[in-house]
Amino acid sequence: MKIKCSDNNSHPLLITIVVSLLLLSPIVFSASAQTESIESVWASSAIPNPIGKEIVLVEQFIEDTPNADDGEEQDLWRQYHKRDDVLPLSWWLWSDETGSDWPDDDAKARSGQLAMQPQSQDQAQYVLNSNVEQYQDIDKAIQQARNLSIQEIVLELSGEIILTINQKGEYEIKIQAELEPLVNLSDDTMLYIFLSEDNAEDEHGRQVKNLIRDMKPEVGFSVKANNVTNTTWIIPKDHMIAAGVDLQEKPLGWHITLAFFGSVEGDDETTRLLALYNSPLPNKWSNPQSSDFLMPVMLILLTTIIANIVFSNSMAREKGMPKINVGWKNSSMTSINVSIKAGNQPVSITNLEVNPPWKGRGKFNQLEIKAGNKYDFSISFKQRCDEDLSFSLLMMIEELGGWTQHLRLSPPLSQQENQLRSVESEEK
Fold first, then answer.
1. Using CA atoms, how far apart are residues 40 and 36, in angstroms rounded to an integer?
2. CB contact at 8 A, 13 and 415
3. At what angle do helices 10-35 and 290-320 cross, to 10 degrees?
4. Which helix H or strand E contains 144, and what residues bound it?
5. For the chain, percent of residues with pLDDT exceeding 70
6. Which pLDDT value is given to residue 270?
């Protein structure tokens, strides 16, 4: 069967609208992106609430075989990572000595800031809340760090952590912040921004948890009580490239840590941990924009519309198409019986076309069949042929348009052939 026409125009209109939206959406969003300059926001998240004072920041300057299994220091390192009252971050100092592709410049700078003693390659060192650990007993070391830390809340911080990307695929981290000290802080108060990788592995197979890839010190904020500073701290794209941070290849598994070190004015001026914030680096799935869903939603909508059209058309055809039965008259080898029952639509049989070598006898008269009614009639042919009878009925179905129904019958059997077939059947 082959449909020739249809009088339903709403479906093409719907398809046209959806397709137009699909075609226009990239243009619209491309135009809006161009107005933003060459850099666009990839993802963002709010600066989290500060970590409780009971949590101790542990900076671990690890040995050159961090995943070795046979040393006392390794056991100590693992113990720190298993505790839920510490925030462990790892420093790596040994790229020159081991040929590792991990960065170590910031680790050396941080070691110098802390005035640490030279470290041997086979022994780790630990710094708790900015104070170098002097104890091998973990519980004692953590309690000592808590005693030295500022217990009251001395500043408030809010804002967003924003991940941007330029047209070259280079990322940059921006922290848009509002900072308000609640008390006067010392002039040497400093913020350290640490970018760490949750599970790092170098080219030689060394593995480290919470490896600091980049460090960015910041001092550009007021330390006077109730003075609000609105600022943006940036980890530039060149820092990230130099630190081996490839967010295109690995978008997940990164953390940002904000650690404020200093003292309260009038205190003993001992450097302490003033406030600590830690958050996963935002990614594409942190807070997806509506534009991220537009194309998939439009495609789903288009697919749904098309599927609905196909289904509704199929159901309409099934209910509206007539049922046709044909067969040879028992008493004739040149006539057939045709029975047509209309569906839920009126049917007009407009013409009969007989394919050679068969030839119809007489002129075919157009038939009109009401919805749900049945009509029986005969078609006669001039002579019997040994080839299949092939003919077509041309019809018009209300709301479905013009259709052609192709029919085929095997040639009728002669009386002698029928008798022979009957005998063969009895023998079997």
1. 7
2. no
3. 170
4. helix 138-148
5. 79
6. 80
